[in-house]
Amino acid sequence: MSEVLVLNRHFIPVNFTTWRRAIVLLYLDRANVVDEEYRLYNFNEWFELSQEINDHPAGFVYTPRFKIAIPEIIVLKFYDKIQFEQPKLTRKNIYEHYGYKCCYCGKKFDSTQLNIDHIIPRSRGGKTEWGNIVTSCISCNLKKGNRTPQEAKMKLVIPPYKPSRRTKLSLVLNTNFKLHSSWQKFVDNLYWNTEVEQ
Ligand SMILES: [Zn+2]
To answer: Which residues make Cβ contacts (< 8 Å) with residue 192, sequence separation at least 6?
Structure first.
């Protein structure tokens, strides 16, 4: 297991990184290791501790002359904004976003009965982005054809809207990701400190 949980200066989880990068950040004095008791270690302290212990959940990196314990959690010393990401425009994400409903007639359909519709058709310069993409059933799709809703005199019962942005971390946490026990406290911290979605 090589994933290291990265906390920002306020102990809020912001990302994962590899053990290599974690040790580099530690060595460059851009991060400290933090343990479950919120004790912080700089590179020298962590290095010394590593020589004294023989048992460490994440294991060790060995060189011919010394070993260094792989940190499980590091806390950054510099300012690091939490990065948000928009869910990708996949068929699955789009269908789920609109609840498997046709945005023109509002009825619910099986995924095989749905299409992805560019509100402003692509041939007319419409972009493939959340604001221009809706789901439509086959009959609404045929009716609309290569026209804008206005031209087709069709109303969007469900107007297009963008999904709320998630942190990279919450996207990962949504997928049955296995957590180190030492991470739990900090991940709970994220849960209580993340803005509630509208
Ligand atoms: Zn429809």
So the answer is: none
Summarize pLDDT for 103-132 with one digit per residue, the tens: 999 999 999 999 999 999 999 999 999 999
Query: pLDDT tens-digit profile of 30-59?
Result: 999 998 888 999 999 999 999 999 998 889
Cα(106) to centroid of ligand 1, in Å? 6
Rounded to the nearest whole angstrom, what is the distance from the C-alpha of residue 107 to the centroid of ligand 1?
6
Give residue 52 CA to ligand 1 midpoint distance, Å: 68
* CA of residue 115 to ligand 1 center, whole Å: 10
Half-sphere exposure of 81 (CA within 13 A, CB side): 3
* Domains of the chain, each with CATH number or no CATH: 3-83+167-193 (no CATH), 87-144 (1.10.30.50)
The overall pTM is greater than 0.70: no
Distances in whole angstroms, Cα of residue 135 to Cα of each of 8, 40, 49, 84, 120: 38, 50, 57, 25, 13
Report how far ligand 1's centroid is from the alpha carbon of 111 (Å): 13
Q: How many angstroms separate the alpha carbon of residue 109 from the centre of ligand 1? A: 9
Q: Of 117, 113, 110, which is closest to residue 89 (Cα–Cα)?
A: 117
Distance between CA atoms of 108 and 100, rounded to whole angstroms?
6
